[in-house]
Amino acid sequence: MKPQIHAALAATVLAAALVAQPAAAAKPARCKLTPKQVVTEFMTEFYLRKNVRKAFETWVDPGYIQHNPMAATGRDAAIAFLEPFFASNPAIRYEIKRVIADGKLVAVHAYGRFSAEDRGIAVVDILRVEGCRVMEHWDVVQPVPEKAMNTNGMF
Questions:
Q1: What whole-number distance in Å separates Cα of residue 40 and Cα of residue 37?
Q2: pTM for the whole structure
Q3: Of the candidates 5, 19, 70, 133, which lies 20 to 30 Å from 142 by C-alpha distance?
Q4: pLDDT tens-digit profile of 17-49?
């Protein structure tokens, strides 16, 4: 076989092999944010801007696991509950006091009030993050008492 024909045949076989191989599955872009940054973005959109759907659809995995026994699990369940809750409580306000991260777990300490006259609640949300998605949530809620046994404050 002449060298030119051999090279052409090899090139044809190689091209056919490349075309016949399935395309490599596109890998999702690697998250460049830390879990703390993801949760800060999520909570800012959710707690402060009150954009429930946008916050959850942007930052929360569809298979989101909810540990609060008073709430259903799953991203869609959270949206279905929280959108009307925020709509029916337009005066509700949250202040994020601190965000603490330990690896994939992020805790958000917040102060929530239903009205300006309300003493409010102290909330600690704990979220597990994988990549750029909130995967799991726990929370602890404590009412701000009328009188405290100390002057340290809750926040």
A1: 5
A2: 0.79
A3: 133
A4: 333 333 434 445 689 999 999 999 999 999 999
